[in-house]
Backbone:
């Protein structure tokens, strides 16, 4: 496990809620010690990577960054700085929020409803020392939690997110899993039962999502992150041996260790990042290999899916054309479908053709019902 004595000079004397199991460190962001602290432990924002629930990053790349096989992203960019600056405004809005959609606007003219402290520390729970949480805010104790209005005796985590409107529309089906795991990991590390996720969409639309700790999710987080941590330690040792053998020019052993590292990485998920990862590790040392039974099965399944996708695309095109026909006959831009939302048939910018947008639409129909409806319309 991580030796926290290395970071004793950054430890603050009083941890969150005076919990004796919590260690709290104040380390300057992007400092060398900051990178050392993070490199062999897993942050709450990285938990979804370990569970295959982060669509933007995969576990092999995270491991390679932490063990030194890949250059970590150290430099603060414009987007990251903008997000950090926006956190202050989100936490300020949070103080006036009373649980209603626009109540915070009226309260802003009068008084703060609740209080929160911005957080610039890293919290470790000695029960799970391979994990850490970096909170955006700590809600004061003896304040209401918006989930049920009950007063909470302890401080609890506040997570801030800035999102674009097109991303916010995806939240209509629920909070993305990567954020659910992140907030549950924060509650797990801080020994708290509730939390809140505050979002700011396109710089002005503010919303709060209350969270209650999900024990099943926390059990999954503990199991998967510990497995990832153990793999990181194993990969760290392999990478150190690799650098040693490379320094003395032992090409045969270097190739063997490279192969071992690749074989021991987790099996791929559905994220696009795996295609890039395997492409980066492809050296083409053999012209042809003989596929086994598993390879034949995978090839057959992939071929079946490809043919199925092509057929579905044809069916979708026919259905879309029926909708476009209807809206063109009526010469309308929007089609109101009641509680299911709206469709939009419009021309964007300098594009030659109109586009059909389903961004404002949500269906409750099953696939079987849809096929029956389609048969009726076409027949």
Residues:
């Amino acid at each position: 496990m991580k030796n926290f004595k290395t970071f004793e000079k950054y430890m603050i004397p009083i941890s969150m809620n005076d919990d004796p199991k919590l260690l709290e460190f104040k380390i300057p962001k992007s400092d060398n010690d900051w990178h050392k602290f993070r490199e062999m432990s897993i942050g709450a924002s990285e938990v979804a990577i370990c569970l295959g629930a982060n669509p933007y990053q995969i576990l092999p790349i995270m491991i390679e960054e932490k063990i030194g096989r890949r250059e970590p992203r150290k430099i603060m960019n414009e987007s990251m700085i903008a997000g950090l600056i926006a956190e202050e405004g989100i936490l300020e809005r949070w103080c006036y929020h009373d649980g209603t959609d626009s109540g915070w606007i009226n309260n802003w003219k009068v008084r703060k409803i609740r209080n929160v402290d911005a957080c610039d520390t890293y919290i470790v729970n000695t029960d799970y020392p391979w994990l850490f949480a970096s909170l955006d805010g700590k809600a004061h104790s003896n304040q209401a939690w918006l989930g049920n209005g009950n007063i909470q005796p302890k401080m609890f985590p506040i997570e801030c997110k800035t999102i674009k409107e097109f991303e916010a529309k995806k939240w209509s089906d629920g909070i993305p899993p990567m954020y659910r795991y992140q907030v549950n990991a924060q509650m797990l590390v801080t020994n708290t039962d509730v939390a809140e996720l505050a979002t700011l969409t396109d710089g002005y639309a503010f919303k709060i999502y209350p969270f209650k700790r999900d024990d099943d999710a926390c059990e999954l987080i503990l199991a998967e992150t510990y497995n990832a941590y153990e793999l990181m330690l194993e990969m760290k040792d392999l990478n150190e041996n690799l650098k040693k053998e490379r320094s003395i020019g032992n090409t045969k052993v270097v190739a063997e260790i490279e192969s071992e590292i690749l074989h021991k990485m987790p099996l791929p998920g559905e994220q696009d990042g795996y295609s890039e990862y395997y492409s980066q590790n492809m050296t083409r040392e053999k012209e042809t290999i003989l596929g086994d039974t598993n390879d034949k099965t995978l090839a057959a399944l992939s071929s079946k899916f490809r043919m199925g996708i092509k057929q579905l695309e044809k069916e979708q095109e026919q259905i879309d054309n029926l909708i476009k026909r209807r809206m063109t006959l009526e010469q309308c831009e929007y089609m109101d479908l009641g509680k299911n939302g709206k469709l939009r048939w419009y021309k964007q910018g300098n594009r030659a053709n109109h586009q059909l947008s389903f961004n404002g639409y949500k269906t409750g129909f099953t696939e079987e019902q849809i096929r029956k409806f389609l048969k009726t319309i076409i027949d």
The domain at 4-220 is CATH 3.90.320.10 (Lambda Exonuclease; Chain A). The two ends are 67 Å apart (CA to CA). The first strand starts at residue 22 and ends at 25. The longest helix spans residues 293-330.
